[in-house]
Structure formats: C-alpha cells, structure tokens
Amino acid sequence: MTDDDETPREPARPLRPFAGALAGLVSGCSAIAVAELVSAALRPQAGPLIAVGGATIDRTPTAVKDWAVRNFGTDDKLVLQLGILAVLALFAVALGIAVLRFRRAGAAGVLAFGAVGAAAAATRPDTRGFSDTLPSLVGACTGAVLLYVLAGRLERRRPATPGTADEPVADWDRRGFVAAASAAALASAGAGALGRSLNGSSGRSAVASRDRLVLPAPASPAPAVPRGAALRVPGAVPFTTPNSSFYRVDTALVVPEVDATTWRLRIHGKGVARPLTLSFDDLLRRELVERDITLTCVSNEVGGPYVGNARWTGVRLAELLAESGVRPPSKGGPADQLVARSVDGMTIGSPVEDVMDGRDALLALGMNGEPLPFDHGFPVRMVVPGLYGFVSACKWIKDIELTTFDAYDPYWVRHGWARRAPVKTQSRIDTPKPFARPRAGTVMVAGVAWAQHRGIDKVEVRVDDGPWQQARLAAEDSRDTWRQWSYAWQAAKGNHTLSVRATDRTGRVQTQQRTRTVPDGADGWHSVVVTVE
C-alpha cells in the first residue's frame, strides 16, 4: 500500500470545540480591554465592569447585601467583581462553542452583552448620559468582530478538487487560528494595561491636591483623651482606630478620587433662603473644630467589627445651614430631611432636627490629624454623632438638599432600611476571642461599649447563667465616643459562655432579644464561648 492509498484522518473532535471556547474567551477579554481603554478617555465609572457591578449592587435584595457585608466585609466588592468576571468568562466560552455552528449568532451574543453594559451605565445614579454607554458599546463591537473573524478560522476547509462524495472534510485552519488568537490576546493585554494605566493617572490631580494639603490648626481643638480612657489589656482594641484599620462599608466599586481644588458643595432646597456654593478653600477659611467621634455602620451585627473611633476635623454643619437661612422643624423650618449626595450618586438622608440640635455634626476634612483618606471620603464627608452611617455619614459629598421625608426616599430607604436610625446601645467582648482556651485563674475580659450622643453609664458581664457582675469602666472621653471596659474573671476549668450588656445614660439597658441589622440596626447581647484549661 502506498501513501496515496491512505485515507486522510479527521482530527480528534475535542480540539475544535476547545478552540471555539478559546476564541470566545479571547474575544470577551478583548471586549473588556477595549472598553477599559475607552473609559479611560471618558471616566473610569463608565467602564462595563463598574457599571454592571454598580447596577448589580443596586438591584441586589437587602438580605443578600447584608449577608455579603457580614461574610466578606470590605472584600465584598472584590468578590462581586470576580463573580462578574466569572460569569463573563462562562458566557464567552458558551458563545465561542456556539459560534462553531452559528457564526453570526455568536457574534450577536457579544453585542447583546455589550448592550447590557451600556444599559447599566446609562441608568446609574451618576450617569452622564450617552457618553457613559460608549465603553460598553465600542468594546462589544470589537469583541463581536474578533469572534466572527476567529470563527472563520475554525470553519472546516474542503479540498479544492473534491473526489468522491464520501471524501472527508479537510482540517480547519489551525495555524491561522493560533496566529490570529495570539495577536488578539497580545493586543488585548496591551489595551487593557494602557486603559488601567490611564484610568489610574486620571486621579493624579486628586492625589496631588491631597498631598499638598496641610490642614490649619483647629480653632476649637478636641480635648486631650483622658488618662485611663485606653485599656492596657492584651487583645483590647486601641481607643483611637487607625485610619488604615477603620471600617469601610459603601457601594462604590471604585473609590472616587476627587480633586480638592475643583470640588464644590451646593446647599439648596426647601427653606433655604440663601443658597450656597462652597469650595474647599472656603471651608478651610472657616473656623475648624476637632472632635473625637465614634461611627457605627448599621450593617454591624451584634459583636461585629463595623464600629470605629477617630478624631475628626471639620466645619460645623449647623452653622452653614443657619447661614443659608435653614431652621429646624422645632423652630418652624419647613424641611425635616437633609439629603446629602455623593459624587458617585449615593444619597443619604438625615433628620434636620438632629443635625441642628447642638451636637457636633461636621463636614469633616480631616481624620486623625491628616486629610481624609480617599477611602473615607476625601475631600469632604459628613459626620453626625449618634446616627448610623447610612443616615448621616455621606462620603465624597457634593450636594446638600433640604427637603422632607414625605417628599423623597434616599438610596437605603428605597432598599428597605429605616428613614431614621439613631445608634442603638451596644457592647462587645474583644478578649478572650470565641473558642479561646485560657488557663484557669484570673482571665481579663475586656471590650468596648457605645451609645453615641447618650453615653455609656454601666457595663455588666455574666458567666454562663450566673448573676450579672459590674465591669470596670475606663475613663470617658465624651458621650460621642465608645467606652472601654474590663472585668477580672476568676475562671474555673471547663466550657463557659461569657455575655455582656451595657446601660446608657438615659437608663436604657441593652436588650437580650437578638434582631438582625435590617431595618435600623442589630440588637442583642454579645456572647463568646471559651474553654478554660
């Protein structure tokens, strides 16, 4: 038998579907890379990953959001983005396999997914209209064309001079496919890297404005933290939370980087006789005050980590409102809600009465002796002691509108949270940790308690089902800060449950009944189980 007598063999079947899947992945990556590059020319928030991610957050049920914050903490946004990328990868693989039989339909699928990204960008609260849809649309067109071209390389070629009717179809253009896919992958990597670089450089002016900033000495400095306010117990948290450790819970997939030199704040709305537009320098020229204030996130479960204490520097918000002619409802003002808007479209509603009742409600410019970190709202954010963050602590603020609770529902209210939410009286055991194994004898139990704007009057500890024992309170800084406590426990061997409860200065005792965070904050005693050896 000669070589001419041999029957050509069709290549193994799994290779072509694998190549189709690869074509889908390369096309999907190209679409995202080009979209990133286009968003760099417009604004990072217009990119499809951010737009779709933001739309996903907005449409996610409150219970699921709460679960994500509880389980992933500040990594919840990273988990979301990785999930979006995983879904995109699976979709791209499916389109790549489908294009082997339906070439045009597969390319159309890429365009359809681009339309989803464009719709998400166009419906974001901070959308700039049609321009925000361009990254998704241009990226999708690029991916669709590339997938169509790569699919052409995957089509089986027939012999130029076919013989008998049953002669097998020749192999597909493997070399051409590998060359085209490799070139597309390299180009996509370059476009993606360039887009990331340009998006990063877009915030350089904001970074420079923060680096140049030196906060003036406050006209009203915070009193020195009293001696004895900070416990020296191993395992206890610092009295002042470092900026790097301060909790961050928000919906921003990309931290806004706002240039302080171009930042403006507008105050307007119902009952505002003299609307104001203020620059950052306008605020710096005003009397600055410095206060220690503890903030708490409403997503903080009983015993959770989303509470922190910092020294804030800023301008009294009540004074700005008074200069605008605003009066609280108790003095005949027509507005009972202050709606703060962030540069990323977030809306936060605060009671006007609380903001103007004499407490240290601030437009904060500094945190722990330095300009606000970008993660925590640079250049300006709101801080209102005694209210959960979702009804007070607007970061990256750009607009304040006076209105009524009946007329407008801010972001979180539309998602099932309460309109008004004063911080609940809470306490937490920081040491020993759950399931710790201390030795028998004296064991120091310590933690923090908080009831901002009311103050903590008493903390008690209970071992198993025994009587409540009064803990030793550390010195109080102010009623707007948390208070540390400790209890010397004479621990006997065995398994034990330690519980804590606090009493605030109004006489309210922290309740035993456990409630979830929705709609106005968690309640209940914090307990830990330990084994004494």
At a glance:
This protein is of the alpha+beta class and 533 residues long. The protein contains 12 helices and 18 strands. A hairpin with a 2-residue loop joins strand 7 and strand 8.
Number of helices: 12
Characterize the quaternary organization of these chains: single chain
Shape: globular
Question: What is the typical, i.e. mean, pLDDT?
Answer: 91
Rg from C-alpha positions?
Answer: 30 Å
Number of strands: 18
* H and E string: HHHHHHHHEEHEEHEEHEEEEHEEEEEEEE
Helix content: 25-40%
Strand order of the largest sheet: 2-1-10-5-6
Task: Describe what this molecule looks like in 3D.
- With 533 residues, the chain is of the alpha+beta class.
- It contains 12 helices and 18 strands.
- Strands 2-1-10-5-6 form a 5-stranded mixed sheet. Strands 3, 4, 7, 8 and 9 form a 5-stranded antiparallel sheet that branches. A 4-stranded antiparallel sheet has the order 11-12-16-15, with no helix packed on it.
- Strand 5 and strand 6 form a beta hairpin.
- Helix 1 packs across helix 4.
- The longest helix is centred in the first third of the chain and has 28 residues, at 15-42.
- The chain starts with 14 loop residues before the first helix and ends with a strand.
- Mean pLDDT is 91; it is low at 1-12 and 164-169.
Give the tags.
533 residues; single chain; alpha+beta; 5-stranded antiparallel β-sheet; 5-stranded mixed β-sheet
